[in-house]
Amino acid sequence: xxxxxxxxxxxxxxxxxxxxxxxxxxxxxxxxxxxxxxxxxxxxxxxxxxxxxxxxxxxxxxxxxxxxxxxxxxxxxxxxxxxx
Length: 84
What we know:
84 residues, 5 helices, flat
């Protein structure tokens, strides 16, 4: 689909300064995201030959398991409701 770049610029210029910043941030996000591998791409990659660090080995063999966001916030005595 072809996009009229002049139309985009015209629309951008009609936005408030705050909205222009939001539009710019979103376009920057899209530009960065398109260069990142998605899960299907990652699954197709060959494993690397780098061995795990001692910390990675410790975490992999840990019995701690998964910690939810809420549990981690509670453990750190941080509010779990960002509205409060």
